[in-house]
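Z., the sequence and structure:
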Amino acid sequence: MDNRQLALLGRVQKARARFEEQQDAVDEARAAYVEAVRRLNDSGVPLREIAEELGLSHQRVHQMVAGGTARPSAAKRAARGVAGMALILALTAAIVHIARAEIAPLADRTRRRLSFIAEPLSPSRRDDSRQASTRIANLGKSSVTECL
């Protein structure tokens, strides 16, 4: 990586750290919210009444009380992020490797197959463009397909 890319990488890493800190704060706030709803229900307030007061469905309140709001911890999110980034980098490297291996031979092969089209148009051959056009028009469909 060059210096510009390293600087950008540093910015990305700082932004990610800031994002993860804020995500952790959101997770803590959500946990406190869910715990408050549980305590309210434990004190005897029915699920439907809690739902009506909070503007939620009674099913959502039931999920919260039953404990169905767990989110992955910061460590698990980070591990997924690192694994995902490693996978993306590995796939990118594989694609670049395959592309480099395939493009050069394909370009050479295509250049050789199409060279007969340019030959009649070259000044050294002194063929007129009408003869070249006729030659191109007389190509069979299979010849054109082979060139592609």
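The first helix runs from residue 3 to 42. The mean pLDDT is 75.

Let me know what you think.
H.
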